[in-house]
Structure formats: structure tokens, C-alpha cells
Design a protein that fits this description.
six-stranded antiparallel β-sheet; globular; 23 strands
Length: 333
């Protein structure tokens, strides 16, 4: 009898090394990094082409997330199966991607296309709407989110040519606990000194419009995508401030609700239940640790660990060991 997708799924992380990374994914989140000081991202739950999360334990151990979507679609995704995308790929793959980022240096200034724009790329992809939760911020660490009021395409293009893009960007000093919502078309960058939890559409489409006039060891700048960036920016967005959390139940705050995902923050000092509502739930522990029922590994989910509750798993009880904070992400509808 084939294995069922009806228990808590835990996956092997995939690490990405970029020049702006560091070692805090290990120091703060317990990630098993190798040698080197440029570990930038830990892709925790992903189904995007060759980038696949692999189940760690239980009857489905060794299977990739993409296989689960193909072979156990209803059990995994439940009643709500897609995140508002017009792309056919949303019907073939897991719609969300969750990662942790160590911003040891300031990232380039970027923008992502929406679903319609990304569908016209070669090859086509999903658009990329995302949200960040700040886990750690050094004093003075900045988030760049949106253009300043009144910045037009022409003004931004002139600033890019002059190497003065920062003058067009809205920014603020970040602090732990901030949540920032970045819809597709929003200009953005993460500053140095941040550790971030990010939920996004399952897309890797990024246009880089400015890299702070940096050059590599040979004196060459990184490639930019200026024309593509200027074409997909939503110039009406303006400055983007941190989200105002909305309390929807004792210990539960809704941080983001959009057509791509819902992001909630659960603070638990006593057992709480997730799931059993006909949809999957993506869980990420950002403080403390919890013991989850239906977990074949049996060990607690500690800070920096993630899990996927398939729709068929039913209610999962999370028992905190002391105080714990868990991000809970699911599809709208």
C-alpha cells in the first residue's frame, strides 16, 4: 500500500552561498554549515525546478516536495491548492518558498515581476510577492522598502545613471519582530546586519537595478537588469512601512494577508493546535522550541527549524517547552 501524506513533514535545508552571506545561520539558527563565511540563505521548503526539499523521515523519507505534489496533491494541499497565480506552474508545484537569510552585507536593490509579467519570460515563472520577518537586527541595520513619494520612472532612471539610487529609496532602521510586506513590483533591499525569515511565491525571478556601485576583485560590477526593472516597478506603491499586526485570537497575530499567502505569528506558552482546516500549514519556529504530534523524528522543533503540515494530517498539537514563537503560513481562501 503506498505511503500516505498524512503526517508532519520535515525537510533537508538547501544552502545558498553569496558574497553577502556569513555564519549566523549556524550561530543563531543552528544550521549545519560547512566551511566558509558566505552562507547567505537556507531554503527550507522549496519546489522550484531542480531546487527540491527532500523529506527527512517517515514513510515518505527521501521523496522530493515536487513528487509529493504530483503524487499526493489532495492530501498535501487540501481544498485550497493555488495562490492566485495565472501561471500554469502554480498547478504543478508547491506554490510557496520559505527561507532564512543572513545579510552580512547589504544586498543589491531589486524588484520582482508580478505573475503576468513573469509568465512572459523565457522560461516562464511565477511572479514574486514576499514578506520578511526580522529575527535579528544589528544597531543601525536598514531595510529599503519602496520608493520615496513622487519618484517617477524618469527620476529613478536618472538616479541609476548617476549612481545615486539610494536618494530615491524609502528606508527605516529595522528591529527584531518587524514584518515587511513586499508585493511584486516593489523596489527593495535588505541592509547589512539582518537575519530574516522570508516567505515568498515559489519563484527565483529577480531583477537587480542597483548594486551600490560595488565592483568585484577584478574591478567589474555585477550585472544589472535596469530595463527589466524599470518596466515592472509599481511607481504608485511609494514608501512601505512595517506591517501593523492584527490580533485574531489569543496569542495569534495576523501579519500579512494577500492573494498569495497568509502569514501569522503564534506566541505559545501552552499547547496549541494547527491544521485540521482542509489546507496545508507551513511552520517555522523563530523563538524557543515546540514538540509536535505526528512528527516521525520525535525531536523538538527548535529555533530555525521548519515543518509542513499536510492538509490530510489533520490537527497537529504544538507543545511549547517554555515560551515559543512560531510563524504559521497558509494559502488564502
Amino acid at each position: 500500500m503506498p505511503a500516505r501524506c498524512d503526517y508532519l513533514l520535515r525537510f533537508q535545508p538547501l544552502f545558498r552561498r553569496y558574497l553577502w552571506g556569513g555564519r549566523r545561520l549556524a550561530a543563531m539558527l543552528g544550521k549545519p554549515l560547512g566551511e566558509g563565511d558566505d552562507y547567505a540563505e537556507s531554503w527550507e521548503i522549496v519546489d522550484h525546478g531542480a531546487d527540491q526539499s527532500v523529506v527527512r523521515a517517515g514513510p515518505l523519507a527521501g521523496q522530493a516536495l515536487g513528487e509529493l505534489v504530483r503524487n499526493h496533491r489532495r492530501e498535501l494541499l487540501g481544498e485550497v491548492q493555488r495562490a492566485g497565480s495565472v501561471s500554469a506552474r502554480s498547478n504543478e508545484s508547491f506554490p510557496l518558498l520559505f527561507k532564512f537569510l543572513d545579510c552580512n552585507r547589504t544586498l543589491s536593490v531589486q524588484v520582482h515581476p508580478n505573475d503576468q509579467q513573469a509568465a512572459e519570460l523565457h522560461p516562464p515563472d511565477l511572479g514574486k510577492t514576499e514578506a520578511w520577518v526580522v529575527l535579528h537586527a544589528e544597531p543601525g541595520s536598514k531595510i529599503y522598502s519602496g520608493l520615496k513619494e513622487g519618484v517617477t520612472r524618469e527620476a529613478l532612471a536618472a538616479a541609476i545613471d548617476a549612481g545615486r539610487v539610494e536618494e530615491c529609496l524609502h528606508s527605516f532602521d529595522a528591529k527584531a519582530g518587524d514584518c515587511v510586506f513586499i508585493p511584486a513590483g516593489t523596489v527593495h533591499a535588505l541592509g547589512a546586519g539582518l537575519v530574516i525569515a522570508e516567505i515568498q511565491q515559489a519563484s527565483d525571478t529577480t531583477f537587480r537595478l542597483f548594486d551600490w556601485n560595488r565592483v568585484d576583485a577584478t574591478g567589474k560590477p555585477r550585472p544589472l537588469h535596469v530595463d527589466q526593472s524599470l518596466a515592472v516597478i509599481d511607481y504608485a506603491t511609494g514608501p512601505v512601512a512595517p506591517q501593523m499586526p492584527r490580533r485574531i485570537a489569543p496569542g495569534v497575530e495576523r501579519l500579512v494577508e494577500c492573494d498569495k499567502f497568509v502569514l501569522q505569528r503564534r506566541e505559545a506558552a501552552a499547547p496549541t493546535t494547527v491544521g485540521g482546516d482542509g489546507r496545508f500549514h507551513l511552520l517555522a519556529v523563530i523563538e524557543g522550541q515546540v514538540q509536535a504530534t505526528s512528527d516521525p523524528l520525535g525531536s523538538p522543533l527548535a529555533r530555525g527549524m521548519t515543518a509542513l503540515v499536510p492538509a490530510a494530517a489533520g490537527p497537529i498539537e504544538l507543545k511549547p517547552q517554555g515560551r515559543a514563537v512560531v510563524l504559521d503560513i497558509f494559502l488564502p481562501g
